[in-house]
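During the no-cost extension, the postdoctoral fellow (Dr. R.K.) reprocessed legacy sequence entries with the updated structure-token encoder. One reprocessed record is reproduced below for audit purposes.
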Amino acid sequence: MKILLIHVVSVIMSLKSHKKSKHEGIAYSCDQCEFVTVRRYHLKRHVESKHEGIRFSCDQCDYEASLPEILKYHKESKHEGVRYPCDKCDYAAMAAGDLKKHKKTVHDRIRFPCDLCEYMGPKLTSLKHHVEKKHTTKTCYPCDQCKYVASKLESLKSHIRSIHDKIRYPCDQCDYNATKTSHLKFHKQSRHEGVKYICDQCGFEALQKGTLKHHKESKHEMIRYPCDKCEYLAQAVGDLKKHKKAVHKEV
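Re-encoded structure tokens follow.
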């Protein structure tokens, strides 16, 4: 009964947090750095560990942790030999959190998308390594007519043609005008040629390859895109970007 009550309270708190962050736009910001969270308790812990220097000492060695749960993990893994086995493979984690991460990345297929290209990392650390290796030293191409910045020269040229030069590509079968040749191709295929992309697992019909890809990833492969600033999980990269913009005020 007690376990059930704890579970119910946990679900209610998670729902409350979800409503605040997703629908009410409520977030708690640290006034000493850029840290943002959807839970007041997490902000309190952040301030204590990062700015007030509060530490929790191990009674069996000289180790000091910044958080109680980190100390618990240290004692279990280093002194008690506690392991958390995965029920889907032979993996055994040293901490419950590590097991949860393992299941998300290996079995639940959670992915961390790059904002600058199509790369998707299985871990947040993989994404950070990718960005540092592929994008931090890359040349950026700023537009001299607005604030747009492209990561590729061709993207900048396309931006100038469609936004500033107002170049359009007319359809020869109706009055539609596209800003890009790819948009015109999609228009013709979907509106005039009846091209559809069908899911081979359920029969779902899409007008675009990208839509079919998103359908398979979210419905059949259960791929999710987690926010690196809170516990939100998106079914699509676009949904994650909208969430970050609305909740975390990212541009």
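The first helix runs from residue 2 to 23. Residues 170-223 form a domain with the Double Stranded RNA Binding Domain fold (CATH 3.30.160.60). The remaining legacy entries will be reprocessed before the final report is submitted.
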